[in-house]
Amino acid sequence: MMTERNIILTGFMGTGKSTIGQLVADRLGREFVDMDTLIEQREGRSIPQIFAESGEPYFRRLEASLCRELSAPRGLVIATGGGALVPEANLRAMEAGGLVICLDCQPAELWRRIGQSDNRPMLAEQDEGRFARLSNLLKQRGPAYARIPHHLDVTHLTPAQAAEQICVMVQKQEMG
After folding, report:
1. Domains, the chain
2. pLDDT tens digit string along 125-170?
3. Which CA distances in Å does 140 have to 107, 109, 125, 136, 143?
4. How far apart, in whole angstroms, are the C-alpha atoms of residue 139 and residue 110?
5. Backbone angles phi, psi at 133, to 5 degrees
6. CA separation (Å) from 143 to 85, 106, 170?
């Protein structure tokens, strides 16, 4: 029997990758892996702590290593960190073992979802600078996200609706 390809959800912070990924895994009877959670478990500290204590380059190396580790098709549902697939090598590794789907969301909705969160190290700015930082990050990552062939706009979808649409996308891919 051929191993099922992974389903990899990526996209900007706040698009619902982890929540939606868990729902997709539950619906399809697959194992769910949240890359950020796995990094936190292995490091014994939170993502904000890793950024503060070891820096972003160290964190990005952990992500790259994990992308390579998770690239084999094992029938997993994987939620990446928001910047994990920005480096093309990471994207190619994940594409080798599965279907990569980028979750998109309008900036105003992203701001509503994550604007006040203290658990977002990439938005570690004072209040007045946070929206500008979010907008700049979206612009910076836009070209990387655009390289991903499969997208789902989750701006007006509940997590359950998004999960259902992803399951349909996966079925279509499996059917050819």
Report:
1. 6-168 (3.40.50.300)
2. 555 677 777 788 889 999 999 999 999 999 999 999 999 999 999 9
3. 14, 18, 17, 6, 7
4. 14
5. -65, -45
6. 11, 16, 24
